Amino acid sequence: MVETGNTDHSISEQLQNDCSLKEEQIPILYGSYIDEASWRVRIALEWKGINYRYESIDIEHGEHLSSRFYKLNPCKKLPCYMTRTGKILTQSLAIIEYLELNYPQRPMWPKANYHRAKAIAITQDICDIQTSEIKKYLNMIDMDPDRRQETIRREIEGALEGLEKKIKYSSGTYCIGDHISVADFFLVPLHFTVTKKFGIDMKQFPYITRIRNTLMTLSEFKNTHPYNQPDCPEQLRGSEL
To answer: For a Cys staple, 185 with which of 31, 33, 43, 54, CB 3.0–4.6 Å?
Structure first.
């Protein structure tokens, strides 16, 4: 259900074409294979069975910081989502909420108000683990690289410890009881980020690890994995998920 955009066109040409569309079109997700927030939205789109076009933004070479990308999101962050009518949405949670309201099939939030609130709290806790911001801040400090990396790991592990305790009391098979929710859409990409980018040993967080492993048996999570995306470097494709 994913169409890949024409990579021969520059982003400025693509934006000019996309933003000039007047009639309803196939939605477009502007994201990156390696971006944690983009993966959340890919999972939601797959969960809802929404046909969309994927346009890769090369964040590893700073394409999201370009003046051309500014036309999509002045905050210069991923993901961005263009609706069928050409409207732009940013922030993964806002995009997911839009999808929930406009595509009622396969609900992504728990029905009970209390459980919905718990799911929202977990998504916010995950958003608060700002791994990129921690790294950016520490890179500005005159610190030995090994010590800097250890400090980053310690900060992340402290945040994960709190998340683990919350999930311990809210979970069943998944983050909130036995029904998949947006909290799970956020958990799996977080696990990828902290293990692949920061080398966190997740064995110390058994509830997070168990839920992540269960979710990764499902097609919605496997198909949207970074290493299964069209913009993933060839040498990483087929790597262990």
So the answer is: 43
- Look at residue 229 and tell me if it is in a domain: no
Q: How far apart are CA 163 and CA 173, in angstroms?
A: 16
Do 195 and 156 share a domain, yes or no? yes
Q: In which domain, by residue range, is 167 found?
A: 113-220
Same structural domain for residues 207 and 131? yes
Q: Which of 8-12, 43-47, 146-150, 212-216 has the lowest average pLDDT?
A: 8-12
| Angle (CA) 187 129 101, round 5° | 50
Residues in contact with 203: Cβ distance below 8 Å, sequence separation at least 6, in sequence order: 209
Strand pairing report for 52-56 and 28-31:
parallel
Domain at 216, CATH number:
1.20.1050.10
**Which residue from 216, 37, 29 is spatially nearest to 123, judged by alpha carbons?**
37
State whether 93 and 124 are in the same domain. Answer: no
- C-beta separation of 181 from 108 below 8 A: yes
